[in-house]
Amino acid sequence: MTANAFRRQSFAGLPAGSGGALPALTLVGLFFIVPVVALLLRSVTDPEPGLQNYAALFGSGTYARVFLNTFLVAAVVTGVTIVVAFPVAWMLAIMPPALGSIVFGIIILSMWTNLLTRTYAWMVLLQRTGVINRALMGLGVIHEPLPLINNLTGVTIGMVYIMLPFMILPLVGTLRAIDPMTLRAAALCGASPLQAFRRILLPLSLPGIAAGGLMVFVMSLGYFVTPALLGGTSNMMLAEMIAQTMQSLLNWGLGSAAAFVLLVVTMVLYAIQLRMVGAKRLAGGL
């Protein structure tokens, strides 16, 4: 080993050729690790050193309901998003490339629209005198306006609309990788469309469902704008509670503890997903 190669390998304790990653590692340290450490320290030192903030967080029935509602909303949004996104992703996977590119572009374009603007648009559509209620009443489907806002229904509709692209994108990639001849072979063997979907298409698309579902669930856990505008006080989520605790009550210690718990839950879910995907790849390789 030459002297120059040895210096490259021993530079800052990193392997040779990894010096180019130092700027990225520095940014991660400054903008992720340092704030997380500061958040943790504040949660155990404000207003005084100790774990009293975590004790208050887990020992209060009010905060427990907020945690439960957060996971409930995230689970409902994830489930509905998967059900709505799957047929859209399948349509994109089988339609002609030219038409598929147009539809795909429309879906991507919706992600570029301002989040607050889209949420306010749903507020207008879902209110008692909104377009949806007026259309249903005009068609004779209902006789009085439905409560579509300031409840779980409004939060679910608004968040599913926002989360759809994040579910469709990984699903499209997974579905396009499935050989269409597999489904044709199942049909030739006498399988009904439902059997082919349940025994072939659904199992083969599980990696995309898992990736998109985890992304949607994790993002839903920390969502603030849409639940705050479309939900009510009975549907408060953890992100809204953290904002109120810090901004209104000025209880930075308790808010930091809640934020750190949310971060830990997110990282645990991500680690579980990585472990499951790694196990499946290992099993597939064997």
UniProtKB/TrEMBL annotation:
<feature type="transmembrane region" description="Helical">
    <location>
        <begin position="120"/>
        <end position="142"/>
    </location>
</feature>
<feature type="domain" description="ABC transmembrane type-1">
    <location>
        <begin position="67"/>
        <end position="273"/>
    </location>
</feature>
<feature type="transmembrane region" description="Helical">
    <location>
        <begin position="62"/>
        <end position="86"/>
    </location>
</feature>
<dbReference type="InterPro" id="IPR000515">
    <property type="entry name" value="MetI-like"/>
</dbReference>
<feature type="transmembrane region" description="Helical">
    <location>
        <begin position="249"/>
        <end position="272"/>
    </location>
</feature>
<keyword id="KW-1133">Transmembrane helix</keyword>
<keyword id="KW-1003">Cell membrane</keyword>
<feature type="transmembrane region" description="Helical">
    <location>
        <begin position="92"/>
        <end position="113"/>
    </location>
</feature>
<dbReference type="InterPro" id="IPR035906">
    <property type="entry name" value="MetI-like_sf"/>
</dbReference>
<keyword id="KW-0472">Membrane</keyword>
<keyword id="KW-0813">Transport</keyword>
<feature type="transmembrane region" description="Helical">
    <location>
        <begin position="154"/>
        <end position="175"/>
    </location>
</feature>
<comment type="similarity">
    <text>Belongs to the binding-protein-dependent transport system permease family. CysTW subfamily.</text>
</comment>
<dbReference type="Pfam" id="PF00528">
    <property type="entry name" value="BPD_transp_1"/>
</dbReference>
<keyword id="KW-0812">Transmembrane</keyword>
<protein>
    <submittedName>
        <fullName>Spermidine/putrescine transport system permease protein</fullName>
    </submittedName>
</protein>
<feature type="transmembrane region" description="Helical">
    <location>
        <begin position="204"/>
        <end position="229"/>
    </location>
</feature>
<feature type="transmembrane region" description="Helical">
    <location>
        <begin position="20"/>
        <end position="41"/>
    </location>
</feature>
